[in-house]
């Protein structure tokens, strides 16, 4: 069993490709955040937010503010800033998000400093009385815009939710919530935009003055992940970090011990040994003892009372019979005067003979 678990864990880690850029939000110095994986020069930034307990370690909290860093001049060779030329057939962006308040329109993270479409990618929201949408978009340098829209309520407030956007250069965009592809409000579609401003192209977390959001485990892949890889990315962090043991091995071990051994042991002892012992003691032995004791007491009491009375009755009958046969009226009280009647009859017979 142990060998099987180790093999499955190893295969899962190998199949889950490490991202090209990864912020755990744990590599910090003051207000500076450094990526665990990726170009440190490009993807290190100073935050205007704060650090809170996250999904795994620390999380970055942006409260009605945003973090923007590096422009197009410094990152021209990065996939996220030039998807058409630098990506390997597509790109993937993923993060654990915990929103506390949505805004009417906001860019959660991506390339760009406004709500306008900017070359690169973005994950955005629209929230109003009639519209609650979360959508991913990718914009190419030639003005091609790909979008896909899902329900914003799939990411509830004050709850950690894993969000993934996968863009493929031929099939478009797919969205995933906690590793599962949801029903779309609008599936992937393409259109054209014009007037793209390169001056607005920066990497940004939280473009909105009203958005309140926690970020953790933000990852970028410069290729489109498969659905299987997306699901594995939800539960595994890159193999180059020390958090692998926290999210892979312990969970497997805990599940095995809690769901197999203890439950089996408890069930056997409670349902077999315990119940059998209780049934034999309460339903078999005690009832027999109780019935036999009462029967014995009743029988003994009956014999103790009945035998003397019976013997006395027999003696009385015998005495009375003897008295009636042999006495001259002395047992009239017992025999009803039988002896006196016999004497009178004998006297009448004597008188008649004379």
UniProtKB/TrEMBL annotation:
Gene3D superfamilies: 2.60.120.200
Superkingdom field: Eukaryota
Keyword list, A-Z: Disulfide bond, Membrane, Signal, Transmembrane, Transmembrane helix
Keyword Transmembrane helix: yes
UniProt keyword annotation of Cell wall biogenesis/degradation present: no
Region (Disordered): 240-272
Signal peptide, first to last residue: 1-16
InterPro entries cross-referenced by the UniProt entry: ConA-like_dom_sf (IPR013320), LamG-like (IPR006558)
Domain LamG-like jellyroll fold: 89-228
One Pfam entry name: Laminin_G_3
Residues that span the membrane, as ranges: 299-319
Coiled-coil annotated residue ranges, if any: none
SUPFAM superfamilies xrefs: Concanavalin A-like lectins/glucanases
Official protein name in the record: LamG-like jellyroll fold domain-containing protein
């Amino acid at each position: 069993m142990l060998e099987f678990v180790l093999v499955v864990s190893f295969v899962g880690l190998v199949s889950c490709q490490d991202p090209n850029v990864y912020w755990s939000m744990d590599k910090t110095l003051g207000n500076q955040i450094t990526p665990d994986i990726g170009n440190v020069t490009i993807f290190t930034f100073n935050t205007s937010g704060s650090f809170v307990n996250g999904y795994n370690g620390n999380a970055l909290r942006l409260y009605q503010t945003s973090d923007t860093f590096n422009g197009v001049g410094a990152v021209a060779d990065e996939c996220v800033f030039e998807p058409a030329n630098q990506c390997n057939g597509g790109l993937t962006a993923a993060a654990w998000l915990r929103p506390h308040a949505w805004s009417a329109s906001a860019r959660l993270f991506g390339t760009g400093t406004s709500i306008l479409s900017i070359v690169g990618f973005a994950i955005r929201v629209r929230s109003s009385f009639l519209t609650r949408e979360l959508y991913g978009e990718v914009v190419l340098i030639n003005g091609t815009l790909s979008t896909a829209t899902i329900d914003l309520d799939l990411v509830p407030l004050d709850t950690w939710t894993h969000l993934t956007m996968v863009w493929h250069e031929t099939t478009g965009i797919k969205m995933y919530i906690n590793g599962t592809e949801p029903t779309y409000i609008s599936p992937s579609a393409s259109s054209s935009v014009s007037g793209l401003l390169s001056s607005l192209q920066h990497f940004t977390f939280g473009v909105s003055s009203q958005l309140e959001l926690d970020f953790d485990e933000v990852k970028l892949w410069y290729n489109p992940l498969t659905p299987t890889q997306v699901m594995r990315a939800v539960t595994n962090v890159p193999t180059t970090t020390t958090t692998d043991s926290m999210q892979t091995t312990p969970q497997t071990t805990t599940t095995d011990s809690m769901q197999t051994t203890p439950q089996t042991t408890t069930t056997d002892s409670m349902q077999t040994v315990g119940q059998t012992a209780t049934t034999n003691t309460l339903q078999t032995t005690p009832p027999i003892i109780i019935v036999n004791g009462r029967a014995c007491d009743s029988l003994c009491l009956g014999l103790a009372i009945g035998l003397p009375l019976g013997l006395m009755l027999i003696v009385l009958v015998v005495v009375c019979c003897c008295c009636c046969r042999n006495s001259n009226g002395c047992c009239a009280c017992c025999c009803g005067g039988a002896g006196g009647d016999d004497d009178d009859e004998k006297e009448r017979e004597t008188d008649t003979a004379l």
